[in-house]
Amino acid sequence: MKKFVFSLFLVLATTIACAQTSVYHPFPEANAFWSEHVSGVPFEICDKDQYILTGDTAINGVTYQKLRYYVKRYYLHQNLCLYYGSYRIYDFYKGAIRNDIPGKRLWFVEANHSNEKVLYDFDLNLNDILPPSFINDPNFSPGTYNIVKSVDSVLVGAVYHSRYGLAISNHPGNIYVYLIEGVGSTFGLFGSFGLLNPEFEIHSYLECLSVSGQAVYPDASVSCPSIITEVVNIEKDEIFSIFPNPMQEFASIRLPANVNQADLTIYDFSGKRVAFYKSIRDNQILNRVGLPNGIYICHFEFGNGKFVSSKLIIN
């Protein structure tokens, strides 16, 4: 009798576990934000970032959820990210996302674009090659690719979501990141600035996902505060900016009222320096000087080695 009960328990446990992972769990569509820690070079970045859903929008007649990107940027202390002391907060419109529940996908329309790309594809099985997507460039490292080496589940809120462990094809025994339905990846909502998304030598990890004011990942005990309330407290004259942004041929440099001049270095998204301006001043005109359309990082350095960075779009 005991053996029968134990066997029945195993069957029920297996059935429940399968049920928990056989149903696809989509991404939240309101009242949610993803918090990440980010650090790396060449910009000596030491950030706490958040992607926050801010309402619906229509693109090409399809409903999406708008996504804003808030960056809380600290300064490194002896090459260490301590995440305290002075910081600045930046606010960007990242783009818009939409769930494709039948296809087990999350689609993404980048800011200043109208065409959608797959951000996540969870139609995966063990030993599958990860399909190309916005965060998975198969051309980044020719001859290598991401492969699914484990499939299990993880608790998100009160429900188990499928989880997929990825390894690089030439190191199949080393799982380096997990993709989680309805969450993103352990590197964050937009993956890693590494093999998945080769923009900079930057490393990120997902700190928490909050839905309706409650942390649902990694668990409810995690403190997951929003930084959006801090953004409105920043004085406008403290911000370095370029206007208009996106720019076409020319733009104006805006410096804070307490900064007389700064050195400006512009990097492309591979981290290559493409332009440098010495001792620029407020309202100085910036010429694109042949730079191709794309997204760039503007690195302002001023007063005793202090710096801030911001994004510039040229189209």
Task: Describe this structure as you would to a colleague.
By secondary structure, the protein is mainly beta. The protein folds into two domains: 22-116 and 180-230, no CATH class; 235-314, Immunoglobulin-like (Sandwich), CATH 2.60.40. The protein is 8% helix and 49% strand. It has two helices and 19 strands. The strands form four sheets. It has an eight-stranded antiparallel sheet with strand order 6-5-4-3-2-1-11-12. Strands 7-8-9-10 form a four-stranded antiparallel sheet. Strands 16-15-18-19 form a four-stranded antiparallel sheet, with no helix packed on it. Strand 11 (201-211) and strand 12 form a beta hairpin. The model is unreliable at 1-20 and 231-238 (pLDDT under 50).
Notable features of this structure?
315 residues, mainly beta, Immunoglobulin-like, 2 domains, 8-stranded antiparallel sheet, 4-stranded antiparallel sheet, 2 helices, 49% strand, disordered N terminus
Outline the biggest β-sheet.
8 strands, antiparallel
The chain-level structural class is: mainly beta
Radius of gyration: 22 Å
Helix percent reads: under 10%
The overall number of domains is 2
Count the strands?
Answer: 19
Q: How far is the N terminus from the C terminus? A: 74 Å
